[in-house]
Amino acid sequence: MKIEAEWMRGGTSKCWVFEGEHLDETHKDLDSLLPRLFGSPDHRQIDGVGGSTSTTSKAMILRRPSDPDVDVEFTFAQVGIEEAAVDWGSNCGNCSAVVGLYAIEKGWVTPSGDNTRIVTRNTNTGQIIIQRVATPEGALPIVPDAQMPGVVFPGYRVGLGFKDPAGKTTGKLLPTGEATDTISAGGTRWTVSMVDAGAPVVIVKAEELGLDTARFESWQAGVKLQLDTLDQIRRQAAVRMGLASTVKDAARAIPKLAIVGAPGPGDTGTGDTADVNVMMLSMGKPHPALAITGSIALTLAASTPGTVLNSITGSEPRSILRLRTPAGVIETWSEERNGSLLVGVDRTARTIATTTLHLPELLGSAVEPSFASAAQ
To answer: pLDDT of 15-25, one tens digit each?
Structure first.
């Protein structure tokens, strides 16, 4: 069996992009089809197209909707690596950046003006994301030339504006009704904020983890020593936010967990100023940059009195929030337009390959690999 697909980079993630009609033609259940295509379960994903990391084991499924007000509908799939499973519970903001570019490159949307507007809808959350792809003189640049933190090479500039993003998953910006809550995990009580905008996120204070807020470059080593406790916090937050009935049932992808702290004079890296230092976990490990859907939640948390993040950024209104991440400083923006709140960020995207994927006709049960006897 053969399946047409595009391999694309969106922001600091890579994903395989499929047209829904092509997947429909396989007559296969996507919860079985995608892990087999990606080579899961196997931490190497050696017999598939997965990249063996949480930021590269992703898929986007695009459709042209009947709704005249929406140009493209898309569904995000976080494909498990060690597990033959797919998490459909949230969206990926970085991979969302490929949707508008794909639509232009495939002729679904005709470029217009210096910035082409594409209205997209994420089916995981129902979120409307208004994308603006740079098309100077009505066309994509011959050579992509836009840069962004966390990516060495340029791509096409894509602006993502999340329309009225609060509560798309749980129904409320503050799912528990409180700006801060207390969670007990690892024998300690933690002060957290649980916020739903773009994606559900639980926010933890860096100080409570014993991290030096003035030395952001030292965080990763300290965080890795506390991953089990952080996962306990995240799973308890899933239950508090109504995302799971028990901590055992909590999904791997949501809620996301963000560690925040006030920037200090000892911060190193790019030297760019920031309003807050952030390290986010992705599928249980430190994210190399920042989950963009998570950055939307952080942006609204910063402007919500009483949250952990608001205690760092203050209540002064701001149109730009500067987040220091392991990949550099990322700016998010907020604006009122036509009675709606748009919260967004600029990304870049690029098509890496257009290809045909080969799928074995029989989707049998995976055999536990014998890594001890595998060739080095």
So the answer is: 999 999 999 99
The closest of 11, 364, 15 to 160, measured between CA atoms, is: 11
- Cα separation of 203 and 301, whole Å? 9
Phi then psi for residue 158, to 5 deg, are -135, 120
- The predicted model scores a pTM of 0.87
Quick check: helix, strand or coil at residue 23? helix
Smallest CA-to-CA distance from 323 within 283, 273, 282 is with 273
Give the amino acid at 374: A
CA–CA separation, 183 and 194 (whole Å) = 11
**pLDDT tens-digit readout, 257-302:** 999 999 976 454 445 789 999 999 988 899 999 999 999 999 999 9
Of 321, 276, 271, 272, the C-alpha closest to 300 is: 321
- 8 Å CB contact between 83 and 31: no
pLDDT, tens digit (0-9, with 9 covering 90-100), for 195-239:
999 999 999 999 999 999 889 999 999 999 999 999 999 999 999
Among residues 276, 303, 292, 288, the alpha carbon closest in space to that of 204 is found at: 276
Q: What is the dihedral of CA 365, 367, 368, 373, to 10 degrees?
A: -170
DSSP β-ladder status, 128-134 and 188-197: unpaired
- Residue 68 β-bridge partners: none
- The position carrying tokens 């396989």 is 26
For residues 140 and 111, what is the distance between their CA atoms, to the nearest angstrom? 8
Q: Are 251 and 301 in contact (CB under 8 A)?
A: no
Alpha-carbon distance of 283 to 254, in angstroms, equals 9
